[in-house]
Amino acid sequence: MLVDVDAEVVENARLSPDYNVIALGAPAIAAISRPGQFVMVKPQAGLDPLLRRPFSIFEIRRDAGGRPTGLTLLNKRVGAGTSLLYDAKPGDRVGCFGPLGQPFVPVDPPAHAWMVAGGVGLAPFVTLAEALAARKTPATLFYGARSAADLYGVSTFERLGVRLVLTTEDGTRGEQGRVTAPLERELGARHAAEPVTIYACGPTPMMRAVAALGDRARRPVYVSLEPVMGCGLGGCYSCVVPVRRGTGQHFVRSCIDGPVFDARTLVWEGLAGH
Amino acid sequence: MADLSVQIGSLRLKNPVIAASGCFGYGVEYAPVVDLSTLGGVAVKGLFLAEREGHPPPRIVETPAGMLNAIGLQGIGVHRFVAEKLPELRRLGAIVIVNICGSTIDEYCEIARVLDDAEGVGAIELNISCPNIKAGGIQFGCSLTGTRDVVQAVRRATRLPLIPKLTPNVTDVASFARASEDAGADAISLVNTFLAMAIDVETRQPKLTNVVGGLSGPAIRPIAVRMVWECRQAVKLPILGMGGIANATDALEFIIAGATAVQVGTQNFVDPLIWTKVIDGIDDYLTRHRLARVADLVGTLHLPVKEHAWSES
Prior knowledge:
- The complex is a heterodimer.
- By secondary structure, chain A is of the alpha/beta class.
- Chain A has 2 domains: 3-100, Beta Barrel (Elongation Factor Tu (Ef-tu), domain 3), CATH 2.40.30.10; 112-226, Nucleotide-binding domain of ferredoxin-NADP reductase (FNR) module (Rossmann fold), CATH 3.40.50.80.
- Chain A has helices spanning 27-32, 80-87, 125-135, 154-159, 180-189, 204-216, and strands spanning 3-14, 19-25, 38-42, 53-56, 59-62, 68-76, 93-100, 112-118, 139-145, 163-168, 175-176, 196-201, 221-224, 240-245, 248-253, 260-262.
- Chain A has a 7-stranded antiparallel β-sheet with strand order 4-3-7-1-2-6-5. A 7-stranded mixed β-sheet of chain A has the order 11-10-9-8-12-13-16, sandwiched between helices.
- In chain A, helix 5 (180-189) runs parallel beside helix 6.
- Chain A is globular, with a radius of gyration of 18 Å.
- Chain B is α/β, with parallel strands linked by helices.
- Chain B has 10 helices and 16 strands.
- Chain B has helices spanning 77-91, 105-117, 138-141, 144-157, 173-182, 221-234, 248-257, 267-270, 274-288, 305-312, and strands at residues 6-8, 11-13, 17-19, 41-47, 60-63, 66-69, 96-100, 123-127, 162-165, 188-190, 194-196, 199-200, 205-206, 213-216, 239-242, 261-264.
- In chain B, strands 9-8-7-4-3-16-15-10 form an 8-stranded parallel β-sheet. Chain B has a 4-stranded antiparallel β-sheet with strand order 5-6-14-11, with no helix packed on it.
- The N and C termini of chain B lie far apart (43 Å).
- The A-B interface holds A 1-2, 4, 42, 47-52, 80, 95, 97, 227-228, 230-231, 233-241, 250-251, 256, 270, 273-274 and B 22-25, 29-30, 32-33, 45, 53-54, 56-62, 64-67, 69, 71, 74, 209, 217-218, 246, 266, 268-273.
């Protein structure tokens, strides 16, 4: 089922000059969404900007009785639409349509789940971490950002019992460097008989590197892609990504065949432009 | 409730609101959100004879009150469409208008013959106006002889209602409407997108991989309305009008200018639940204006007397 909600902005927490978490009163979508799914958001009525934008569902908000009351989006201000969401005030209305896309499939114990997030690529992992916690699957989050101030939601993952491996490019928190460095070390130290499933979301070069590391270590890798999208429903064919077919490649729509893909099916050279 | 039905050649539509080709996939994608049987028709994504991959992304970019696209007619080809999508569309009760495109006249004719043999095709929309492919399409649509030749040839290949979709990227669109009428078309669709481009000034690169693309959305609506009005005066054929329709008022503008039916494209991306709003809005208008049938509203533009005299002097 798909729902279109003229959602009220319940809260807008600005985390930095670029990032905010916006809470929307969209219980009907929150109630049926699965980990890694997205919504198409129209920040305001009117013709400019015209199109909706895709956002991973960041968190499901619940009341004291556990009933879903809404959802949040992790937003990074980069253009007109994301600036409107950054500046939104409680009481504003935001068009929210979903839930859309193929979700993450959470792995069951004894397998371990390793989530790898870069920057705003953290967005789909709160809902996945909740699903993993419900299955009692041991989970780790490898989370990289530019600086300590750009690492968000760490306490949320701690509360869910997720082991955290943090990296920053400037070394202000966790290990200095890229998030793929500790991932590579831990993959190398892991016995082949111990199953690990990797989930990644972030900049395309990061996801490509994670896919290569997973491939070398013979671990399945699932990535959540974030290409430009027109409709979110398979109507426009703008969000295509290349997947392997025979000896060649084939464009598939990431809105309905993704956004989550098995990394081995993707033609990474063709994704460089994203 | 007013009578919303309209006649397009031999095809009867229960209402004049059609999903535009290229903006609605193969229709089946929208079945979870829209009851396809409530639409006047579904114009499916343009089909060649064979499968096509289309252009590498980025394929769209937003512009003020509109968007550019250069998808490049990615598609599954007519045979897979007939085998995989058409039965589902029939089951869902959709009136199916199949948009077809060819690199050669022979290819257009071959696709038309395949569709003629298939069960459940309501009409053929002849895409001679896609601005995003190298061979075929707009090459026919930008030449009067090309338009006449391809419409005539496809006319001989099928009994289905034939609807050439015209490009606005010509000086005098009405002459292309006349060429289509002379060649045996049952109706015409207009407009396809306007050839356009957008540049990232920081990198000095085009924002689309294909460099140029087609502009759609509310930005083009006044030009499209003008073109429908010009064609209404040039031909007797029913016109399927489109270009930036975002609500019932926009649709009524096209109908009053001379469109028998309208197509909604880009706005479906913004609001996938737009359909009942447009259909009910047209019905409300007819009731308010004491009109029993939408067909009675087609081409009823009241020209101001003074301007009318001036334009004829």
